[in-house]
Amino acid sequence: xxxxxxxxxxxxxxxxxxxxxxxxxxxxxxxxxxxxxxxxxxxxxxxxxxxxxxxxxxxxxxxxxxxxxxxxxxxxxxxxxxxxxxxxxxxxxxxxxxxxxxxxxxxxxxxxxxxxxxxxxxxxxxxxxxxxxxxxxxxxxxxxxxx
Length: 147
Description:
This protein is of the alpha+beta class.
């Protein structure tokens, strides 16, 4: 696997098959979403970043964000495919999304059960006492569709 990574914020370049395959078979979060749900979420996102192998053009990572476009953003669905892990793709995606884009001065939020060390490198920390959240009540988890 090459370490030459290309980042692109063009929504038209996102490989929806790669995103759907990862989110429906490997992600531990929101596996109850249908492919149609995922595609709607991507198309409604404020910003997307794809990571691509520069030599082959294959998409190897993804992140999307929601935002009011002024002061607040939420980082979602960030992943790196298995054979591209350990090459700095995750760091590159986070940096491009939050530091190099139009939301560099925003307050950023995310939910994650892992990769806390990665996100801490970009200033993410546990919220203070002023942050409240109403958790979602998602539908029951659907069986994972075959890839």
